Amino acid sequence: MRDNHPLPISLVPTPTRQFNRAFDQRQSNRQSTLPALKLVRSTDRDDAAPAAPPPGTEPPRFASRALIYKQDPTVEEIGIRKILLNGAFQEGPRSARIEVRGVSPVAPNAMNDFIQAPGTEGFDTVHTFSIVHEALAMCQRTLGKPIRWQWNGGGDSTPIEVFPRAGETMNAFYSRDEQCLKFFFFEAPGPTPATVFTCRSFDIVAHEAGHAILDSLQPDWLDADADPQCGALHEAFGDLIAIFLALSQSDQVEALIVQTKGDLHNKTFLSDLAEEFGLALGRDNGLRNADNDKRMSEVSSEVHDLSQVFTGGIYDVLADAFELERGLGRDTEAQTLMRVSQTIFSLVLEAFRSAPERNASFADVVSGMAALCPKEGQGPGYRRAILNQFARREVIDVKAAAGNKKGASIASVRHAHLGVKANGLQDRSGCCGTLRLREYSAADRAFAGEVKALADGLGGRKATAGGTQAEAAE
């Protein structure tokens, strides 16, 4: 009867050093057409390296493939791409950090992948989840640590809920109170009826995810009674997450280089944000154009309008840094752009994180980026690009641009017309859905203030030692 039990490893015959030498001698006497690689066996050396750790000592690694829009359905030039999502995912899709709601859950296939047909609810579900996951992963890689959602802590690890089809309206937003991201759909005006799903826009999903991420790092920046530049930084951060997330994907960078011939100031899908939404509104360059030349003196205090100054400044810094690095013979242009974008995003994210907790200004973040340049290994060239671009946009004093030394003082330029409204609040009339939510409007604080003022007011029933005045009369 055949014995199917495996032999103990100690009983498995192992070649001796003498056998190995004889085998090598026989092999060397053979005529070979190709040089053979020398075999290295553990028995050839007395000081052999320790054996590999047994299976199971390394944590298992999980990943799933998914299909997403590279930008949105109208950007046909780059279309749809397959991406790899690192992590353990369950039906939904769902991870420990993100959970999809409001739609039929999508189950992984036999290969543990989430592949759905474009144009379907299932595709929208996977696409939306994937972009939020990738935006969070990019920020965590850059900072080197996990980022908790704003409500996490003290044992609370509640994931953010994502609603790809939250209802019909021309909107999308992040809500701290509801602990969610909601993306809506609407019928585009015009002779040909068409439904625009905001969740299908790479830029819109990344932008709203950016609000959620920044709210964790700087929770006071969403308050409507803060300086308008603070709210504008929130809007700009969402746009920058969309830009740098696209630049973290090699095929998008390759397409960008080909489309622009290496000139980032040529018209490109990278600088045009939310193209399909913009076309539905009759615009030819999306909802926003990151490649702009707006200066502080040319914009209003409306937060969205103001944010374009900062977004445009960072885009110009990216273009300048790319020109500084390209053509050095080390990498292809696409590889250079990816490397440069990672460096610039690291400067941006670290500067946002280290800026003041309340009433942060553009100059605060610019100063932080300039100070971080030596730390990132990018000295005078990058620092000069940052200072020059934001001096040109009237964010910092032009004299600051002349200093390239670490720690040089950078003074901001005051613009009297860029303050809050007469009621003490920011003008958010042109912002995305997030900044227009009531929960960030300071209404609750105003209500509490009125209640407190009422307690110190005149009239009403006065308290006595035996109760209220009315009770004493009885």
CATH architecture of the largest domain: Orthogonal Bundle
Mean pLDDT: 84
Specify the CATH class of the largest domain. Answer: Mainly Alpha
Q: How would you sum up the major sheet? A: 4 strands, mixed
> Which structural class is indicated by helix and strand composition?
alpha+beta
Question: What is Rg?
Answer: 29 Å
CATH topology of the largest domain: Neutral Protease, domain 2
Order of helices and strands: HEEEHEEEEEHHHEHEHHHHHEEH
| Low-pLDDT stretches | 1-14, 32-47
If helices are DSSP runs of H or I spanning 4 or more residues, what is the number of helices?
Answer: 12
Number of domains: 2
Strand content: 5-15%
The neighbouring-strand order within the major sheet is 3-4-6-5
Instruction: Give the N-to-C terminal Cα separation.
Output: 106 Å
What's the helical proportion of residues? 25-40%
Q: Sum up the overall morphology in one term.
A: globular
Number of strands: 12
Architecture overview:
There is one protein chain. It contains 12 helices and 12 strands. The protein has helices spanning 17-28, 121-143, 202-217, 228-247, 250-260, 275-280, 303-325, 333-354, 362-372, 380-392, 443-455, 469-473, and strands at residues 63-69, 80-86, 98-100, 160-163, 172-175, 180-183, 185-188, 194-197, 272-273, 288-289, 463-464, 467-468. The strands form 5 sheets. It has a 4-stranded mixed β-sheet, with helices on one face.
